[in-house]
Give the backbone structure.
Amino acid sequence: MHKVWILLPVVGVVGAIAFGLLAALSDDYKAYGEVPIPGSERLHLPEGDVMISFHAIMPDVQNDEKQMPLPQNLELVITAPSGAEQPTVSEDLGSTFAGDSEAHRQVKVAHIFVAGDYTITTNGTDNPSVSPRLSFGHSNHYKLLLWISIGLAVFGGAISTRAMKRRAHTASDAGGRPDVSVAGGRPEVSVADLLSSGQRVRGVLRAFRDTGATMRSQGLTPSRQEFLDYPYYALKVELRLPDRAPVTGRIQQPVPPTEVPNLAVGRELNCAVDPADPKQRFVVDFSTPPA
């Protein structure tokens, strides 16, 4: 699951780039054909909403720089085929999209009740553009996929970062022992720190449980390859510190597979503890028998 969270932002970024390019190159706005201004053509229109855009050669217009000018008194008449209900047309101005000396801008939306061949007549005056026409098409589906990909990248990145922080471990060699870190509400210490400077005490195993996890399943990178599939066990250990009453600590740490059959309630263990907080900051040293 940890690897899935890591892949989410990667998939989102790749998708955003791909769908962004497809959206920029798509000709969906004129998918059903174009009619010159002035002019008349017969186009086959599908049932549903049809996007109508003003399209012309306008090399001086750039994306988001300014809105392309529209013809004065733009007229549009859509005549339905015999027996079909007349379409409804409403004004719906959109943004300007430009490229290769051409630009287009949504101006209207027509609702087509029945698919068929429609006669379309256009007219307009004071038109400053070259080769003006009305384009009939549909919304760019790639734009929706683009925003979904962006959302996936942002969401996946946030979840992945949070998961990685929660699963952060201090990777250390620790003299050939499995990597583990111990916190307990204080700054983390590695198994290497505890084993090298912690107080050695005798422990008695009071309970143990296989968590079903390994370093591989948690997406962690051990200092040695053989630790990758060591099983993580939840251990409850009675720690017998000198000159004080025994305390019970709990920890989850990898256990060498050769030691798993030897786990038993009452088994004595060699442990290294932080005397300031032994219940939370200790580690079992399976490589050394108790003194």
About this structure: Residues 174-284 form one domain. DSSP finds three helices and 16 strands in the chain. The first strand starts at residue 33 and ends at 36.
